[in-house]
TrEMBL record:
It comes from Desmophyllum pertusum. Ligand for members of the frizzled family of seven transmembrane receptors. Residues 287-322 are annotated as: Disordered. GO terms for biological process: canonical Wnt signaling pathway; cell fate commitment; neuron differentiation. It is found in: Secreted, Extracellular space, Extracellular matrix. GO terms for cellular component: extracellular space. This is Protein Wnt. Pfam families: wnt. One of its GO terms (molecular function) is cytokine activity. It comes from the Eukaryota.
Length: 322
């Protein structure tokens, strides 16, 4: 059971890493029954992603515990044995992902007691998460021979870093499929007028369109994007244009430390000095600031300002050192 908790935590952390440049950034809510708050009550694209990535996290942690010999009824994957070609032999301890998948299915899917549309959605997305781990394996090898000449190699299968799984599921999130329940078969089908017309095994599916997450909304669990750090120089995800929802942004200056004048010393380490520099940070405006500017009661903002930010002026320096 400990590994289930670790897996869920791994999924949450990866969710926040993958979504840090999105309007919904996988924020957690303290003292809520669900760690993600009311966001999870909607059968949305975001819920689909959370179910998939936490399911993947459980598979990952259980499999990792198995490879470390921490689970009584689990051992290395014995399917990978023998010699593939000259000088290449299966050995070591291949990750037993099949065991991790069975374990995750048993415990994670057991929470879906009903067989309504939402349960079908959750079960499908759990399945996608489990398959994501299985679909991203790598081969690790150890060399043998005189002076590690690598004349012979012993190799084993291992799970890819979890960030690779997270990136894959983020792509599935962006290509999620809106579905409904067919009244005759009681199965999930693609919503009318949507393309493609079939649900694929690795599609994340959802039943409700998402809110825009631009402003706080207690009903949807949206925390809004006020005060979020944005990038004013690049388009796309994380840009001020998208993240700030057209409200514009404020620019402040902060002092930060960085490594500089690095030198290599024999042998073998690198020593750096610690330098300080002033950098600009761009923070999304609140809806109130945007309204004030529009009414003429605050600084006037042009369309250009909404893209490039207000003229720089001395800002508050956070976490500065003297």
């Amino acid at each position: 059971m400990v590994n289930i908790g670790k897996g869920a935590k791994l999924g949450v952390e990866e969710c926040q890493q993958q979504m840090n440049d999105q309007r919904w950034n996988c924020s957690t809510v303290a003292r809520d029954v669900s760690v993600f708050g009311k966001v999870m009550r909607k059968a949305s694209r975001e819920s689909a992603f959370v179910y998939a990535i936490t399911s993947a996290g459980v598979v990952y942690e259980v499999t990792r515990a198995c490879s470390r010999g921490e689970l009584r009824h689990c051992a290395c994957d014995t399917n990978q044995t023998g010699t593939l070609r000259k000088g290449f032999e299966w050995g070591g301890c291949s990750d037993n992902i099949a065991y991790g998948m069975r374990f995750a299915e048993l415990f994670v899917d057991s929470g879906e007691q009903e067989r309504d549309a939402r349960a079908k959605m959750n079960l499908h997305n759990n399945f996608v998460g489990r398959r994501a781990v299985k679909g991203h394996t790598i081969i690790r090898c150890k060399c043998h021979g005189v002076s590690a000449s690598c004349k012979y190699k012993t190799c084993w299968k291992a799970m890819a870093p979890f960030g690779v799984v997270g990136s894959y599921l983020r792509d599935r999130y962006h290509h999620g499929v809106l579905v409904t329940v067919d009244q005759s078969s009681n199965e999930l089908v693609v919503a009318e007028g949507r393309y493609p017309s079939n649900i694929l095994r690795d599609d994340l599916v959802f039943l409700e369109e998402s809110p825009d997450y631009c402003v706080p909304n207690s009903n949807t669990g949206s925390l809004g994007t006020t005060g979020r750090v944005c990038n004013k120089t690049t388009p796309g995800h994380g840009s001020c244009g998208i993240l700030c929802c057209g409200r514009g942004f404020n620019t402040i200056q902060i002092e930060e430390e960085y490594e500089c004048a690095c030198k290599f010393h024999w042998c073998c380490y690198v020593k750096c000095n610690t330098c300080r520099r002033i950098v600009d940070k761009h923070l999304c405006k609140s809806p109130k600031e945007d309204v004030s500017a529009s009414n003429g009661s605050g600084p006037q903002i042009t369309d250009s300002d909404r893209q490039t930010g207000l003229p720089k002026k001395p800002g508050k320096c956070f976490s500065c050192t003297s």
